[in-house]
Amino acid sequence: MHHFFSGSYTITCMKIAYFDCFSGISGDMCLGALVDAGVPPEALRRELKKIPVSGYALSSRKVVRCGISATKVDVGLDRTDRAARTWKDIEKIIAGSSLSPSIKKRGTAIFRTLFEAEARVHGRPYTKIHLHELGAVDCIVDIFGTLIGLEMLGVSEVYASPVNVGGGTLRTCHGILPAPAPAAMELLKGTPVYAQGEPFEKTTPTGAVLITSLSRSFGGLPAMIPETAGNGAGDKDPETMPNIVRLIIGNAAASPGEEGVFVIETNIDDMNPQIYEYVSELLFDAGALDVYLTQIMMKKMRPAVRLSVLCRRNELQTLADIILRETSSIGIRFFEASRIVMERETGEVRTSFGKTGVKFARYGSTSKVIPEYEDCRRIAREKGLPLSRVIETVRAEATSPQKKGKKERPGR
Description:
Layout: E1 2-6, E2 9-13, E3 15-20, H1 27-36, H2 41-48, E4 56-65, E5 68-77, H3 87-95, H4 101-122, H5 136-152, E6 157-160, E7 163-164, E8 169-172, E9 175-178, H6 182-187, E10 193-194, H7 205-214, E11 215-218, E12 224-233, E13 244-252, E14 258-268, H8 275-285, E15 290-298, E16 302-311, H9 316-326, E17 333-340, E18 343-351, E19 354-363, E20 366-371, H10 373-383, H11 387-397
Helix pairs in contact: 1-5, 2-5, 3-4, 4-5, 4-7, 8-9, 10-11
């Protein structure tokens, strides 16, 4: 971890991971990349034993794909009858494990997403879906192994490139289907994808649910200081492109670079203004980074409001649906933009008013101390002081936080 000092407080730069999915992604490729990047296989096996499933063996070996060294991880089953499991079965297995609460929560959410995608593909309730196509044990090991590996490497946030999904066909219990599998395509909705190289299934449903669930955004390499990298190999060994996923791990750059975001806009001149508050709440709850209104004049000098929403690519479709469903708008526009955000950390400081929440921000050589408004508001009411005086006093007295603050996601 990198620490940056400015006066009396410290800003810690978080560790991030970048999955370069130039040749697709699958569960075993994720595990291979993590092992190649430094996760000890024995430690991974030890953690996976906390899950009450048996009948498998986790193995890893070095391979070469198109002249590139990589690690291949396999989940070998001890028996041939791969038991199908329902959502209730998976839920029970996760609940009965001795994994950390955070891993359990994330794993449950990922499996729920997977079951719901399969349900939409097959037109059935997710509670009636069985993990037969994926192999239940393989899927459990791949998903939880990836979560465990990222935690072992100290990764706080994950980013990814656009995903190469491949092409051709694959044989399933439902017959011969086009690649990627229908469930994978369902999971990749709203994600930048493309097909390149020899035609085979490059991205599996397990790989799709992992990368879409874990990645904050999809695009080029984020601003970071690389520390290590690993290559995870898939089953294929084509001649023209190595069947690997590349994982790059390092610290986010001290001075954040540009981050790709999307701006959604629509002009509204015929809606009850009371609705804007409700719509804004829905948009924030669905992942919007910011929502704001601008007074404008439209044709025939008609007063109107421009609704603007800032979001990441993953939330673009969901937020657009909310706008079209909840407002009188009959059309929206969106475009990609870049932004620079300051590194932020929250904490508490001792002041003459007692413990007060403060936000610390830094970008390059620029640093700021921002007292928490709600704390200052409460103090002003209790002491009968002007709010502006309380804010300036807290800012002036802010020194080193008494306890380490939590990192805050740049956004709102």
